[in-house]
Structure formats: structure tokens, C-alpha cells
Specification:
The complex is a heterodimer of chains A (517) and B (279). Chain A is α+β, with helices and mostly antiparallel strands and 517 residues long. Chain A has helices at residues 7-56, 58-62, 66-77, 144-195, 210-311, 320-351, 363-380, 400-416, 463-468, 474-485; strands at residues 82-89, 93-99, 105-107, 120-129, 132-142, 358-362, 384-388, 395-399, 422-430, 433-440, 489-495, 499-507. The chains are: A alpha+beta (517), B alpha/beta (279).
Chain lengths: 517, 279
């Protein structure tokens, strides 16, 4: 409301509205009250006049004196408020007066009717002589003068009201100007000076009211800004000095920059060359290991194969010593073959040369297959084997062989490092992933050893581990297959002397983009 | 009763007054100024020749070789002015003014009027006691000795106009009213022309009174003018003009029978030449 106006016209318009409303209400009330009073006065006057006329006309009507009656009527009609008088009496006495259009009193017949009925107050009274009716008088008072007076009073009231409003608004305007507007403009001027950076002018308002507090606030702000401006100037000076020093240092730095870049370039080149060499060496290593492993596996297969044939007695009967020795050879060969296979697998994984072949299969089948392989070993050590797999079948889309390899590794480790108690395998679904946990009641792992558990060639010290043997590649390979090929992760919880729980978490379905490992 | 009613007469004799003004010194046509009070039908500006008295004064003046100018004035002014010539009942003026001559020109009587339909039969009054049972209307200010009647127990109801007396009489608000005979009849004829026979009048015995020309003492040639008025009056009486004027106002056949006798009696009373000769 009135958004474009300044405070002064806004306040004046608001005050004008309030004052005018109040005074108009007062004027309206006064008008209504005056009208009521005048009407009441006129009614009272009519009552007084009719009573007095009835008394005055007693003798003229008794005397049947037309002239006297007419004189009385004419005298009464001098009162301009009387619109009409009609008197009748015995002996055919009848006299009446009525106002014409120019408000002159004119004689009319007693039956003349008024065309101002709505604006008249009429009274009729019998004229009595010793209690006996000798005639009657009827008067009509016009409201014309009452209305004129009311109109004049109203107009006067309106004029007075207008004058009063003008005076009030003028007074309020002047007071507002002196008390609020002028100080505010002064404060505004000071703020504009401050905005231009001129802090030297005093607000000069010494008051204790809101304006005074505003002026004090402005003065405080002025001082504060002035103080900050000084600090800013000082800071700017310091900044300039420092900038100059920085420029100097930059110039110095620029002089050295050429050499530095050349050195960095040289070092980078050296590093890149070293890196290339390392990669080449790594590939050579992997290729060497793969080749070596392949070359080792061939004679190992021959050793194992022929040892098996010999143990079967196909080459002749063996005595117990021979059989025992050959069995040791076969066992050592198989262990070596296993070791070689692990090395080959690790090499392939690290070299990125192993392929992933995802396919749809039932998890239960894989688990059963793993359990089938591990069951004889567990039974040999009299370990219990518990399986907890959800009854509803779980179908996976991943590399079946690699998953089986991981589960077998974990089960194999569990059997290896458990002397009593049992092994537990459980499967849990977690949304798009499953957890396959293998727990045991074996020797457990020291807390300090856990970080290096999944590293290659790490074998933790314990008599059981020594007894169990192993290359220390199993968990490393399992971790690499799980993370690199199956895009899962492996974790372990263990307490030394109480057992361990290894958990594989893998996605139920491999993405096509993950298929090539 | 007669004695009592006589006390009324001065009041009832209404205000037939006149004044005088300086006359011209022309021998053959002396001009005389006379003051009169509005009291119809005797004196009235609205009537031809100024009313019955005016017609008689003009007729007398014509016969006497005088020129009379009648000026109508309020009664009180006429009474208070002690240098003017008056036309009227001498009783009103002689108390305050000395006159050089008084010439009676009209004799009149007062009557009791009543409205016959309000009475069972003809009204007869015997003495003051006979008035006590009636409501009697009179013109306000005409009752000279009210205390007399009050003591006698007679109640008068005063009215402020002569018309009122007869209207009230007609309405039965009063039983009787007393008025100069000629005045009463003329009012009845004017107000109730169709009922005037219903009104009955009875002459008051001893109520005869007079209207005269009163010439102020010190008025130039007052004696001579008085003599001329008297001569002129005698001439119009003799030639019948006077009676015609009376008939004009009373109505034909209604002129009081004793008018001449009454006038002569007042002529003798106000015969100043005889008084002067006697003195």
C-alpha cells in the first residue's frame, strides 16, 4: 500500500484517514443527535403552540369574533415555522391560513390540504370554555426551517470539520517534519556523506527518543566505519608493500623456473623410463613364472601319473617300504602341482590374462560340490561339517569355477587349521549380493597378523601351520579371484585359539562389462 | 330600572366624536375642520359621505353655506386634543375640553336585543332584579358604573366587538344584549339577513342620547359657525332632507317616532346662546 510514497505523505495520509474517520463519525453522530433534538424541539413547540392557541382562542371563539380569530392566527403565523393554522368554531366561524410557495401566509378554506404532509408536524386541539367544546384549532409546523438549520449546521460542521482536519494535519505535518522527517533526512545526509567517505560531519541530534538513539547509532556506525576505513587503509598499505615484495620474489622465482622445469622434465622422463622398465620386468616375471610353471607341470604330471600306476601295482608288486615311499612321492608331487597351479593362477590374474566365464547356476550345486571334495578330509580329522544355506534356491550369474575355487580354498584352510570341533558353512543374501561364510574352531589368527593375512607368500607362524604346510598363496589367490574376477571382497574375523570366520561377499550377477576380468 | 340603565348610556353612546380645524375667512363659504371617530353607521370612512352623521353634517353645511371637512381619528386622540372640533357624544369631550358651541344633530336611543327562538315567549324586564336571571352582553368599556350592577347581582358579559354580541346572542351564549338601537339593527341585517325578524329589540326608557357638532373654544368665528349649523339643521329638517337620511339608515318606516322630540330636548340643553343670554 502506497509503496512509492515517502514516509511523510504515508503518515499524513494515514493520519488524515484516521482523523477524518473519527471526525466524520463524530459529525455524523452530531448530525443525527441534532436532528433528533430539533425534531423533538419542534414536537415540543407544536405541543406548546397548540396548547397556547387553544387557550388564546377561547375568548375569540366564545365571542365568535372572526376578526379577533384572524388577528390571532395572523399573529401566530408571524412565526415562520407555522405552516398552517385552521380554526373552527360555532356559528360557522372558520378561519385558516396556509403558506404559499413564497412562504407568505394566505387565507384559505379550512378544508385546504397541504402538499407538504411529510414535512409537517400537525396538532389538533379542542377549544374549551368552562369544559365545553366551543371550537377547535389545528396547526401544522413545517420542518423546513428545522431542515434548513440542520443543513446549515451540517454545512457549518463540515466546514469546521474540514478546517479542523486541516489544522490537525498541518500541526501533525509540522510536528512530524520537526520530530521525525527532518532528523531522518539529516541522518540520511550523514549516511550519504559516510558512503562518499566523508566522516567528518557530526549528526548533531541530541535527543533521548528513538530518533536520538538512531542518531547515536549512526554516529557510532560512522566512528566504526571510520575506524575500519583506517584499518583498511593500513592493511592496503601493507598489502601493497607485500605485493611489491611478492612481485620481487616472483621475478626471482621466474628466473629459477626455467631450470626447475627442465629438472622436473628430466626426472619425469627418468621415472617414466623406470616405470616402463618395471612393467616390462613384471611382465617378464609373469611370463617367466607362467612358462616355468607350465614347464614344471608337465614333468610333475608324469611323476604323479607314473607314481600312481606304480602304486596300483601295474608295474609289479610293491613292498611296504616302497609303497610308503611312493606314496610320499605322489603326495609331494601333488602338493608341488598344486603349488604350481596356484602360481600359474596368480600370474594370470596379475597379468590380466585370465578370462571370466559367467553363467547361470545354482549356488547349492557349487556348495555341494565343494563339500563333496572336503568331506573326506573333515571326516579324516573327525571334524563336524555344518551347512546353513537358505532353503529357497539361490541362482547366481558369475564364474562358477572361480567361485568353487574360492570356497574350496576357504574350506580347505579351515580343515587344515582345525584339530577339533568343526567347520561351518553358511550363506546369507544381502540384496544383490550374497555372503558365503566359512567358520572353524581352529587355531585362529593373532590380531597383529590379520593385515598381512591375504598377502602372497605370507604364512603365519604356528605349529599347526607348520604341520599343515602350504605355500601361503591360497588366501592371496582367493582374495585376488574374489576381488578381481568376481568383483567381490573377502573379510575375516578371528580370535586366536578360538577360530576364524572367512566371508566372501560377491554380487549375485556379474555385469557383462565385468565378464573379461 | 330606568335610573339604573341610564348609568349605562354614557358608555353605550359610542364614540361619535368630531374635531375642528381653523376655518377660512371667506364669508360665503367658511371651511370648518371636524374630527370624527370610526363608529358606523354614524361615522365611517367606508360609508358614503362618512356615514349617517357625515351625511347630516354635509347637508347642514350645504344649507348653512359652510364647507365641513371630516377627519377620522382614534378616539383617544380626539379626547386628548383640547383644541379641535369634535363630532360625537358631548359627554366624552366636555370633561377635558371647553367648547364655544355644541350643536345637537342626531338623537338616538339604546335597546335590549334578544333572539326570540331561545326564549319561550316575549321577554319583559321589571327593574334591576329582572336582569339578574339573564346573561347580558354588552360592549366592553361601555359599562360606566359596574359596581352598581355588581352589588345588584347583575352579571354582564363584555364583548370586544358589536358583532360578537349578536353572534353570541344567536348561539345562545348570552340571553340579552344592549346596543344602540340603530347599530344593533344594522348589525343584525348584515350578519343574519334571513333571521333578522327573529331578533327582538326593546327601547331602553330614558336612554336617549345625542350626537353633536362641538366647536372648540377659541376656534375662529365659532359662534357664527355654530349659528349657521343650527340654521342649516333647521332647514334640512324643514325640507325633509333630514328624515330621508334617517330613513336611509333606519329603513323605510323604521325611523323612531320620537326622534324629533328627543332632538329638540337636546337642542334646548345645548342652547349656548340661551345660556349666554341667561348669564
Amino acid at each position: 500500500m502506497m509503496p512509492r510514497l515517502n514516509i511523510r505523505p504515508k503518515l499524513i495520509i494515514s493520519l488524515l484517514f484516521i482523523v477524518s474517520s473519527f471526525l466524520l463519525l463524530f459529525e455524523a453522530f452530531d448530525y443525527i443527535e441534532t436532528k433528533r433534538t430539533l425534531n423533538s424541539d419542534l414536537e415540543e413547540l407544536a405541543e406548546l403552540k397548540i396548547t397556547r392557541m387553544a387557550e388564546e382562542l377561547e375568548i375569540p371563539l366564545w365571542e365568535v369574533d372572526d376578526d379577533w380569530v384572524n388577528q390571532d392566527i395572523d399573529t401566530e403565523m408571524m412565526d415562520k415555522q407555522l405552516y398552517a393554522i385552521a380554526v373552527s368554531g360555532a356559528g360557522g366561524l372558520s378561519a385558516a391560513r396556509m403558506r404559499d410557495s413564497r412562504w407568505r401566509s394566505v387565507a384559505v378554506g379550512s378544508g385546504a390540504s397541504s402538499h407538504q404532509t411529510g414535512n409537517l408536524i400537525s396538532r389538533q386541539k379542542d377549544v374549551l370554555r368552562n369544559g365545553e367544546k366551543i371550537g377547535s384549532v389545528q396547526i401544522s409546523l413545517s420542518k423546513k426551517f428545522m431542515q434548513e438549520r440542520l443543513r446549515k449546521e451540517f454545512l457549518g460542521g463540515v466546514v469546521a470539520l474540514g478546517l479542523l482536519i486541516f489544522l490537525i494535519i498541518s500541526f501533525l505535518s509540522i510536528a512530524l517534519n520537526r520530530m521525525v522527517i527532518r532528523p531522518v533526512l539529516k541522518v540520511l545526509g550523514i549516511t550519504q556523506r559516510v558512503a562518499r567517505g566523508d566522516y567528518g560531519h557530526d549528526v548533531g541530534i541530541r535527543r533521548t527518543d528513538e530518533i536520538g538513539r538512531l542518531a547515536d547509532g549512526i554516529a557510532d556506525m560512522q566512528r566504526s566505519i571510520q575506524q575500519r576505513a583506517r584499518e583498511r587503509d593500513r592493511a592496503e598499505s601493507e598489502l601493497i608493500e607485500k605485493s611489491l615484495a611478492l612481485e620481487k620474489a616472483n621475478a626471482e622465482l621466474d628466473r629459477h623456473r626455467g631450470n626447475l622445469e627442465a629438472e622436473v622434465k628430466q626426472r619425469t622422463g627418468e621415472l617414466e623410463a623406470a616405470n616402463r622398465k618395471l612393467k616390462e620386468l613384471d611382465q617378464l616375471k609373469s611370463m617367466f613364472i607362467a612358462s616355468m610353471s607350465h614347464e614344471l607341470r608337465t614333468p610333475l604330471n608324469s611323476i604323479i601319473g607314473f607314481t600312481g600306476i606304480t602304486l596300483q601295482g601295474l608295474s609289479g608288486e610293491l613292498n611296504d617300504t616302497q609303497r610308503d615311499q611312493l606314496q610320499r612321492v605322489e603326495k609331494a608331487g601333488k602338493h608341488l602341482l598344486s603349488l604350481v597351479n596356484d602360481v600359474i593362477d596368480i600370474s594370470k590374474v596379475e597379468a590380466g590374462r585370465i578370462d571370466v566365464f559367467p553363467a547361470e547356476f545354482a549356488l547349492r550345486d557349487v556348495i555341494d560340490e565343494a563339500l563333496g571334495d572336503i568331506q573326506p578330509l573333515a571326516a579324516q580329522k573327525q571334524l563336524s561339517l555344518k551347512v546353513d544355506v537358505p532353503e529357497e534356491g539361490i541362482t547366481l550369474f558369475t564364474d562358477r569355477q572361480r567361485l568353487l575355487q574360492c570356497i574350496l580354498n576357504l574350506l580347505s584352510n579351515a580343515v587344515k587349521f582345525t584339530e577339533k570341533g568343526g567347520i561351518a558353512l553358511s550363506v546369507r543374501e544381502f540384496g544383490d549380493a550374497i555372503d558365503i561364510a566359512v567358520g572353524d574352531t581352529g587355531i585362529g589368527i593373532a590380531k597383529a597378523d590379520l593385515p598381512k593375512l591375504f598377502e602372497a607368500f605370507e604364512r603365519l607362524e604356528s605349529h599347526l601351520r607348520i604341520k599343515a604346510g602350504g605355500t601361503g598363496l591360497g588366501l592371496y589367490l582367493t582374495r585376488r579371484i574374489c576381488t578381481t574376477l568376481l568383483h567381490g571382497k573377502i573379510s575375516v574375523k578371528s580370535a586366536q585359539g578360538k577360530g576364524s570366520v572367512f566371508t566372501l561377499r560377491i554380487p549375485k550377477r556379474l555385469k557383462k562389462s565385468d565378464a573379461q576380468g | 330600572m330606568i335610573a339604573a340603565l341610564r348609568r349605562l348610556i354614557p358608555g353605550l353612546a359610542l364614540l361619535l366624536l368630531a374635531g375642528a380645524a381653523p376655518a377660512m375667512a371667506h364669508e360665503s363659504a367658511i371651511s370648518v375642520g371636524l374630527d370624527a371617530n370610526e363608529s358606523p353607521p354614524y361615522w365611517s370612512e367606508s360609508l358614503p359621505y362618512g356615514g349617517m352623521g357625515g351625511e347630516i353634517v354635509q347637508a347642514v353645511s350645504e344649507e348653512a353655506g359652510l364647507v365641513s371637512h371630516i377627519h377620522f381619528k382614534p378616539l383617544q386622540r380626539m379626547i386628548e386634543d383640547d383644541t379641535n372640533n369634535d363630532l360625537g357624544n358631548p359627554g366624552f369631550y366636555t370633561r377635558n375640553q371647553v367648547f364655544a358651541d355644541i350643536i345637537p344633530i342626531i338623537a338616538y336611543r339604546s335597546s335590549i336585543f334578544y333572539y326570540a327562538p331561545h326564549h319561550k315567549g316575549p321577554v319583559t324586564i321589571h327593574g334591576v332584579e329582572g336582569l339578574k336571571k339573564y346573561r347580558i352582553g354588552i360592549l366592553s368599556g361601555t359599562l360606566a358604573e359596574r359596581s352598581f350592577f355588581d352589588k345588584a347581582g347583575v352579571v354582564f358579559e363584555e364583548s370586544y366587538s358589536q358583532d360578537s354580541l349578536f353572534k353570541k346572542l344567536r348561539l345562545g351564549r348570552i340571553d340579552l344584549c344592549i346596543e344602540i338601537d340603530l347599530v344593533g339593527h344594522r348589525i343584525i341585517s348584515r350578519l343574519f339577513p334571513d333571521q333578522r325578524n327573529q331578533f327582538v329589540s326593546m327601547n331602553l326608557p330614558g336612554s336617549a342620547s345625542v350626537i353633536a357638532i362641538l366647536l372648540a373654544e377659541g376656534y375662529p368665528q365659532a359662534g357664527k359657525i355654530g349659528t349657521k349649523y343650527r340654521e342649516g339643521l333647521q332647514r334640512i329638517i324643514a325640507n325633509g332632507k333630514y328624515r330621508k337620511i334617517l330613513e336611509k339608515y333606519y329603513g323605510e318606516g323604521r325611523v323612531p317616532a320620537n326622534w324629533r322630540k328627543d332632538l329638540q330636548r337636546f337642542e334646548r340643553i345645548y342652547d349656548f346662546s340661551a345660556k349666554r343670554a341667561y348669564q
